[in-house]
Design brief:
The complex is a heterodimer of chains A (about 350) and B (about 230). Chain A is an alpha+beta fold and about 350 residues long. Chain A has ten helices and 20 strands. Chain A has a six-stranded mixed beta sheet with strand order 6-7-8-3-9-10, with helices on both faces. In chain B, helix 6 packs across helix 7. The radius of gyration of chain B is 20 Å and the shape is globular. Classes of the chains: A alpha+beta (about 350), B mainly alpha (about 230).
Chain lengths: ~350, ~230
């Protein structure tokens, strides 16, 4: 049985964690919630850095139950902290090799050269002293250092939150490739919805020390009963394939089972899978096929559910194609004027699409 | 101006030996103690910390007096050392070492404890996630990161032992080659109105102390630059 099954209870001063979740053995699972929701504590429990009551099974191995508690240094995990936390008394190279040296040679599945090349660490190693690296560079070394222990699960605690925007942009591409580069599951703690939408495949939602929902990313983000659908930047995530490049207008067509979306030209080749995010505030609804509109992307959709959001707004969940969810935030007046209700067939006009990876 | 006689040189040598041996023992005792004080959450931690700091505030003669009683023929420690065939400690070099170690304990423990506390838990947690066991973490991360604390502890403990008088006098007396250290030798010279010899030794000690403190501050300044 290759998956992560966790259940922890922990009583701290002014805070109680009582969380259970399962995560698949592949892909990135985001532990998402507001600050103080216990997501970092939960991750620390998985690592064994916090000693909670409960049980933890990873890839069929028991890391913790009523009888045993495997100490952190015996768990085959990689951990990336919020701050890079490089050892200041060691060189960049010695930092990278710290964990590598401590695993048996036959367990080394990740060669140093591979990590150095992938994360572009060569010229960072040459600089010697970690103090001479920028924040983003330090975090890259920290990620490399964790990967070099050939972990069977990677734990990341808001690895971007201590970085400025430029450093974030520097690290994100590497994180986006984590799925492809690694065949191990990743638990990723974050309180930023855009980060989660970009990186995660699976979502575990936390609030006040409890898991309030968990499931596949696109399904969970489209659930109107969860707080994530009511964020200002709430939206749907769609995986689509690059289908056509239009050189005349510099556009690219993305196909998915619910239809097509035209976006600004991308560099990926035909057939490549990309992830698109459609924010609820960028989707409007028409009951008749609009004519003479500047909006290119109009998808046939069926309304599933409408919920009030404050005095003036409602949020509408629609399905396009077989099963793709789409969110739209419109005024309550528009809902009444158009007479929108669940089950209606409508035209969803997508004003903008954000491409991620 | 009278110059130094061989017994003075003997006193200098004895002082350095006492300080060296005491500092070495202090490191062995203070390191685990400082580690425990920095990391323990036990309720009696405050009591232990206060006990360790006690020599800072009680007069050396008081400490020496009680040690003399403890290690004497009717003291608990004295009976133990006699039973173990080690003889009695007062008026021996070994007795001086015991007194010095206790007297200088806070000077060794506190800088190391501060260094461990300043380091925080994070580096050790990082090391644990990188497969380092407890002892490995201590040696490969905690000790190197606490190095400035150790430097301070070594210098302070050594210098403090060199300058000690009260405990030595109460516990060791004035036996040439065995317990007559520098501070006692100076006292003897002054008693005998040999101010010249006293000047040589006392002046030398002032110089020595100054050099010790200067190096301490230079090391400290260099370290704080590295940290930034």
């Amino acid at each position: 049985m290759s998956e992560i099954k966790a259940h922890f209870t922990l009583q701290l001063e002014g805070f109680a964690l009582d969380a259970s979740f399962n995560a698949p053995a592949v892909g990135v699972t985001a532990l998402f919630g507001p600050s103080g929701s216990g997501k970092t504590t939960l991750l620390r429990c998985v690592a064994g850095l916090e000693r909670a009551a409960g049980s933890l099974h990873v890839n069929g191995e028991t890391w913790q139950d009523a009888e045993q508690f495997v100490p952190t240094h015996r768990r085959p995990l990689g951990y990336v902290f919020q701050e890079a936390s490089l050892f200041p008394h060691l060189s960049v190279r010695a930092n990278l090799e710290y964990g590598l040296k401590r695993i048996a040679p036959f367990e080394r599945r990740v060669p140093l050269e591979h990590v150095v090349e992938w994360l572009g660490l060569n010229h960072l190693i040459e600089r010697g002293d970690p103090a001479r690296l920028s924040g983003g560079e330090r975090q890259r070394v920290a990620i490399g250092r964790a990967l070099l222990t050939s972990p069977r699960i990677l734990l990341m605690d808001e690895p971007l939150s201590a970085l400025d925007t430029a450093s974030k942009q520097e690290i994100l591409p590497y994180l986006e490739h984590l799925h492809r580069e690694l065949e191990i599951p990743v638990l990723y703690v974050s309180h930023a919805l855009d980060e989660v939408a970009r990186l995660a495949d699976h979502l575990v939602l936390l609030d006040k020390g409890k898991v309030i929902a968990s499931g596949a990313l696109s399904e969970t983000l489209a659930r109107l009963d969860l707080p994530t659908a009511h964020f200002d930047d709430a939206g749907a995530v769609i995986e689509a394939a690059v289908a056509q490049h239009d050189e005349t207008y510099h556009l690219t067509r993305l196909d998915f089972s619910g239809g097509s979306l035209w976006v600004g030209q991308v560099s990926q080749p035909l057939g490549a899978l990309v992830r698109a995010r459609v924010l609820a505030r960028d989707v409007s609804i028409a009951t008749q096929q609009p004519h003479g509109s500047s909006i290119t992307n109009i998808l046939d959709a069926r309304i599933d559910e409408i919920r009030d959001e404050g005095p003036d707004k409602v949020i509408v969940r629609m399905t396009v194609g077989e099963s793709h969810a789409l969110l739209s935030r419109i005024t309550r007046r528009s809902r009444d004027h158009l007479g929108l209700s669940a089950g209606m067939h409508v035209h969803a006009q997508v004003k903008s699409v954000a491409l991620m990876a | 101006m009278t110059s130094l006689d061989p017994s003075d040189l003997q006193a200098v040598w004895l002082t350095l030996k006492l300080a060296g041996v005491s500092t070495l023992l202090l490191l062995l005792i203070a390191t685990p103690l400082a580690w425990w004080l920095a990391n323990s959450g036990k309720w009696y931690k405050g009591m232990v910390a206060a006990l360790v700091a006690l020599p800072l505030v009680i007069p050396p003669t008081v400490l020496g007096f009680y040690l003399l009683l403890l290690m004497g023929p009717h003291g608990v420690v004295g009976e133990l050392t006699t039973a173990l065939d080690l003889g009695r400690l007062p008026f021996t070099f070994a007795g001086l070492v015991v007194g010095s170690v206790l007297f200088s304990l806070p000077f060794a423990v506190q800088p190391i404890q501060n260094a461990f506390e300043a380091m925080g838990r994070r580096p050790l947690e990082v090391a644990a996630t990188l497969r380092a066991g407890a002892w490995d973490r201590f040696v490969s991360v905690a000790l190197p990161l606490a190095r400035p604390g150790f430097l301070t502890a070594i210098i302070l403990a050594f210098a403090h032992t060199v300058g000690e008088f009260g405990v030595v006098l109460m516990l060791g007396g004035n036996i040439p080659g065995e317990t007559r250290v520098l501070s006692v030798a100076i006292y003897n010279h002054v008693e005998a109105m040999e101010y010249g010899a006293a000047h040589w030794l006392a002046g030398g000690m002032v110089m020595f102390s100054f050099v010790v403190l200067l190096s301490l501050y230079l090391v400290g300044a260099r370290f704080s630059k590295v940290v930034k």
